[in-house]
């Protein structure tokens, strides 16, 4: 913490560096470097010792090159998937917290992930088997479920004619969460034992994509969301004052909230469809980042995205190496880190 | 004297309830105007309509002669700022960050604050006497300090016209006086036009040169304070007998309540005034 | 002096004895039927065993997850491990219920109702035949049970003898993964009856030193393990809608695996591979045929 403040970041540093421009540049540099380092180093680490020379040796045909396959098929897609899932969930967490004006909000609060889970569960339990290109069923079904949940929550939040109320949104989301969770339990009940086991595994998160197709499929949605996120930070700052006060300060509150809701939900849906509902990223990363750089969303949003990527990449390295050859679900790792972090936060606050 | 903000024949209602009826208010440059009335009289709603936060069902509001409905929210925000009754933050921001938020309508989408914005913010902090609090987290301030910071933030947003919604309702006496004198100084020395809504008679009497008296969504009286604030007006507004006199040391009118008006002498029947049909509905709920 | 009096006494005594014995015999016969004839089974492997040993006609209720043998098609379903339908079980008035040993609540209720239970625990390969014999004993079908068990053991021995002396093939057994993807892979470890199946079929389980029954694997681990043969099991309702070609070709993502390179990835379909019942000998032979095709010419 002190390191960051000495570097000029941190909430109370206006004496040393009031300039938002330099703070932004420094934040991006520091967090960007950590994300880049994670992306570069993670594929080099794993349960199998690799010979980098062999990996990039063009003379060996790819079919036969075990090292190359471990690097390019087993590890690299995982790292990229972790970067994508980590950054989108962390950024979505920041946006949802700002939208709902509640630091305890997560990307899963409004039911998007429950919808995705239901989609995946139905696909696994009822053996739904279709594919779009080489993209398998489960990610498609879970994305469809996520979109369905978003549509239902939005429809419920709009039911009252007073525009868009975040209170109603929260109620609608929480209600949908409960309802979908009940449906998920019901589907599990209908499933036989092995299917139940399979669905429980999905719920714990898995980044072993093994190919670039699911990642490429998720990229457009993530990119769209991030493009929307880029326009939001200053508005999110002002929104902290409350919707009415923000209105008076020139924010088009309803359209800003709508954009925040849809873009963050889209990002969450894409992330969960790719790697399952990996928990704690959407709340631990924003909190940690706020402790380091303050609450200005122009810093928090990009920093969270970059840190989220690095964080999940690191957790995934743990997932695939700690108990090799057994794979620990990555959601278990994030929970093991996130839980105590939360306890510490709670104690620190009181 | 030019008319800054003009509301003509405003009517506003929701869910079948009329909150404002045929309200006309003119605010001139340099004014210190008070919207005075009991709870439920529509003064907060009127303030919001004047600020462009609510769209009236009938009538029009003009800012510098241009109708509000034709202006974007950003354009409105650059010319008038609103100070709410209370500010509660979901996240921790420093005082300087809060004040800098006032620069939002003046910056383009991806523009970051520059040295001029920072200087303006610091200047506003100085004007409200809160320079020393620059790096403090907003949530650690006292009520009075918070309101002063919000006023600084409003000044940075629009140096011309401030609208304040019951600015001292949740403050202790000392802070009430602080805010009051701050507003008086801003009005006098910087020519900031101030419009505030309040139900506190003495607060209005001490600060506002002009008053608009509201009851049941209608304008009872409007004009200079010393002309308009009379025993009769107070009785009609609050159903209270009061003594109004000029206080030498204070330098303004003071109101001393004597007693409640007996029901037989009430200016308006209980529950009436809001619904045109007067169908015995309860007083309109607080439109805060 | 033995008079007619003592003779009479002796007769009365022996009459009384006979009467007592007869009463006891009748009482005992009335209290307990000699063999159960209303059987309910919550365990799919036990259901198969029951039908295999000839107890089929006596079965009145089966688990919701039973698919074999075909006779179970129209039968009353009573739930399974996690969701036994207690009411329905009792309505069938069973006198013998096969349950999982872990179903404590159900077992307590059966005990209170004085219904005989057969508690089944997951077991190894040898346990399958001993369970069959035990069932036979309990149901008075010793001969048939022994015959079935003996036949199974004969088949197993035959398979074993065919592959004995041949080099064990390095096998990875995958019994669960996401459809059309190499995600959330579950493989057979060094423990449990899957491990025994591989051993009997002449395989060297690449995960033999992992002391778990189920091992979640990732793609890197599989590349590192480099099995010579991959057995990809599929079973359950999904079989009908499976695209075999697509499922087979997901493995081409990892061409460096020897099994993929040599085309020795076998999709084995059907639940005889995962139900430790009478068909297991068949299943093991199928596996052995895939591993050592030349031993079965």
Précis, in short:
The complex is a heterotrimer of chains A (350), B (288) and C (297). With 350 residues, chain A is mostly helical.
Description:
The complex is a heterotrimer of chains A (350), B (288) and C (297). Chain A is built from 15 helices and no strands. With 350 residues, chain A is an all-alpha fold. Chain A is globular, with a radius of gyration of 21 Å. The two termini of chain A are 19 Å apart. Residues 12-16 of chain A have low confidence and may be disordered. Chain B contains 9 helices and 12 strands. In chain B, strand 7, helix 6 (173-189) and strand 8 (193-198) form a beta-alpha-beta unit. Chain C has 297 residues and is an alpha/beta fold. Chain C contains 11 helices and 11 strands. The radius of gyration of chain C is 26 Å and the shape is elongated. The mean pLDDT of chain C is 88. The A-C interface holds A 46-48, 62-66, 68-70, 73-75, 78, 123-124, 126-129, 131, 136-138, 189, 192-198, 201-202, 206, 208-211, 320, 324-329 and C 65, 80-83, 176, 178-184, 186, 207, 210, 212, 215-221, 223-226, 236-238, 240-243, 246, 253-256, 261, 274.
CATH superfamily membership of the largest domain in chain C, which one?
A: Nitrogenase molybdenum iron protein domain
Query: How much of the residues of chain A is beta strand, in percent?
Result: under 5%
Structural class of chain A: mainly alpha
Overall number of structural domains of chain C:
2
- The best one-word shape of chain A is globular
Q: Tell me roughly what share of residues is in helical segments of chain C.
A: 40-55%
Topology record:
The complex is a heterotrimer of chains A (about 350), B (about 290) and C (about 300).
Chain A: H1 2-7, H2 20-41, H3 52-55, H4 66-99, H5 112-125, H6 137-158, H7 166-190, H8 193-203, H9 213-231, H10 233-239, H11 243-248, H12 253-275, H13 281-293, H14 297-321, H15 330-349
Chain B: E1 3-14, E2 17-28, E3 32-36, H1 43-50, E4 58-63, E5 66-67, H2 73-79, E6 81-83, H3 95-101, H4 115-127, H5 143-157, E7 161-165, H6 173-189, E8 193-198, H7 201-207, E9 210-215, E10 218-224, H8 225-228, H9 231-238, E11 240-247, E12 252-260
Parallel strand pairs in B: 3-8, 3-9, 6-7, 7-8
Antiparallel strand pairs in B: 1-2, 1-4, 4-5, 9-10, 11-12
Helix pairs in contact in B: 3-5, 4-5, 5-6
Chain C: H1 4-31, E1 39-41, H2 44-52, E2 59-62, E3 76-77, H3 86-91, E4 96-100, H4 104-112, E5 116-120, H5 125-139, H6 142-163, E6 169-176, E7 185-188, H7 193-200, E8 203-205, E9 214-217, H8 219-225, E10 229-234, H9 244-249, H10 258-261, E11 265-269, H11 280-291
Parallel strand pairs in C: 1-2, 1-4, 2-3, 4-5, 6-8, 6-10, 10-11
Antiparallel strand pairs in C: 6-7, 7-9
